[in-house]
Amino acid sequence: MSTPTAPLRLGTRASALATTQSSMIARRLTELLGHPVELVHIRSEGDIDRTSSLASLGGTGVFVTALREALVDGRCDVAVHSLKDLPTGQPEGLTVVTPEREDPRDALCARDGMTLDDLPRGGRVGTGSPRRAAQLRAARPDLDVVDIRGNVETRLARALGPEADLDAVVLAYAGLSRLGRTEVVSQVLDPTVVAPAPGQGALAVEARTADLDATDLAAAFAALDHRATRLSVLAERSVLARLEAGCAAPIGAYARVEEDELTLSAVVAKVDGSEQIVHTARLDLGHELAAAAADEAALALGVRVAEALLTDGAARLAPLSDAAPAPASSEPERTPTGTDDPEVP
Ligand SMILES: NCc1[nH]cc(CCC(=O)O)c1CC(=O)O
After folding, report:
1. What is this structure's pTM?
2. Does residue 86 share a domain with residue 28?
């Protein structure tokens, strides 16, 4: 920030979900800081180039990269990301905090209010996520899982619009909830049937670490931090990091804190749905008083679960890292992202 009283500039992408999420955090920061926060629109390569497939642009990482560049360049002071879209490595000089997460589960949005069990034999279900596809096929091998792209409304229209060509689509409950669209949900999917993406439902609020040095922003970030969310998403994303998994990997992870116990389940599935490996582990947080020690223990829990998955042959079930085709030109290398269902604006 240029001066302590200048309005804080919160960088956001232009999609409905991004602006909704950014506005939520802007409101909370305004309350916490006691002065206005302004939204600054940051356009990314992914927003500008709507014709190339997202994979050729390097996955949803392009959206994250543009926001982070704006933070580093000083075009904004704070950025809000969907945590599941963030690569697992934290860049130097930036600090992330995770407010209390929304419901992390996936939501089935089917015509006629159908549940997964109600869908007709051979029913057509749309998702762009290999993780969702694999688990849907494992639960209902007869389903025809169709690869779809587009923003939330575009996807919903495929199942619920006047020209619907699908029986259902699967989206994150959290995104629908933030957009005020939960009335389209016909079933919130049981995480033991469809495990959510690591970090799903959580937001990551990011700032330059240097700005968090003894300023009111540091206090606001501390107030935004939600311990159970932080420990849960650390554990979930630690699985992804240990598996060195990219955005195309069919991996789900679901952690929660209940009565001072952190429980983590993770699944690696074969995309055709014919096989999956699941592991669950628990961590007693009761004696982990210091925040840093609890964080370390949550990360270690994720490593333990990932290694159990590897021991059981996770790497044989699915290509874990992104087997991205070599770039045609001398484009800079892209970081693999932790997301699974790319949202194109
Ligand atoms: N990659 C797209 C994306 N990133 C975050 C969300 C939903 C909100 C969240 O998980 O916090 C979505 C859409 C979806 O998967 O339905």
Report:
1. 0.89
2. yes
